[in-house]
Design brief:
- The chain has helices at 3-34, 62-65.
- It is elongated, with a radius of gyration of 23 Å.
- The relative contact order is 0.06.
- The longest helix is centred in the N-terminal third of the chain and has 32 residues, at 3-34.
- The protein has 69 residues and is mainly alpha-helical.
- The termini are far apart.
- The chain contains 2 helices and no strands.
Amino acid sequence: MDKNVVIAIVLGVLVLIAGVQAFQLFTLKNKLADGQFSTNTATGAASPSGSGPQLPSNLQNLPNMVGGC
């Protein structure tokens, strides 16, 4: 096989992958804009109350500790 043919095939595959990723990004952007995207709250990453996950007790006063001893 000629070197240029191999380069052309690799370039074609990369362009095809980039096209698929652009399509996925476009559909994800539209889902976010329409409000159709939901997060999985079972992992504790998001809380339905909006307060976020509970911090351990030793990190509760962390903002007050910044810059001090």
